[in-house]
Design goal:
There is one protein chain. The chain is mainly β and 165 residues long. It has one domain.
């Protein structure tokens, strides 16, 4: 009796081959996303000196969302801030405490913005960029806030300058 070729006899070998092919093509456990998906509003703290020259200034600051318990910055000395904007709302509010010469001042920073969600890739997911449409402060310590770049994307840049005395 002659033996005939049958697929039913070799199915375990085929299944093993498919399994090994899946292992070789699978994810290597590393995220291959090379695009930064975190978007921050860059804020520079500035002071105009007696010669009317603009200079960076370092202040001790506490920054928190207006209705949030945890601080984004908690009593640290900085000359610039990186603030996230609300991706699902068109307004973001921050409470800023700043000290100069051991006296603490508080101001609110109210930012109006539009949001643009985009899909990057399966590895990276999505990103939300923003366009600043308005900016106000309570002017307790902040003298002026100026928008330099209204497009808030995933790049480190100064979007807003805050001037203090």
């Amino acid at each position: 009796m002659s033996k005939r070729f049958s697929l039913y006899r070799i199915w375990p070998i085929g299944l093993l081959g498919i399994f090994l092919l899946g292992l070789s093509c699978g994810d290597d456990g590393q995220n291959n996303c090379y695009t930064e998906t975190d978007v921050f509003l860059g804020v520079a703290l500035r002071r105009i000196d007696t010669t009317q020259t603009e200079r960076a200034c370092t202040l001790k600051v506490v920054v928190r969302g207006l209705d949030q318990e945890t601080a984004l910055y908690d009593t640290v000395s900085l000359s610039s801030l990186q603030l996230p904007l609300q991706p699902t709302l068109n307004e973001t509010d921050y409470l800023l405490y700043m000290t100069a010469d051991s006296v603490w001042y508080s101001d609110t920073l109210h930012i109006r913005h539009t949001n643009q969600a985009s899909f990057l890739s399966m590895e990276c997911g999505g990103i939300v960029t923003h366009r600043i449409t308005g900016l106000e402060t309570s002017h307790h310590y902040i003298q002026e806030a100026v928008v330099l770049d209204d497009q808030v994307k995933n790049e480190a840049t100064v979007h807003v300058k805050i001037y203090v005395p």
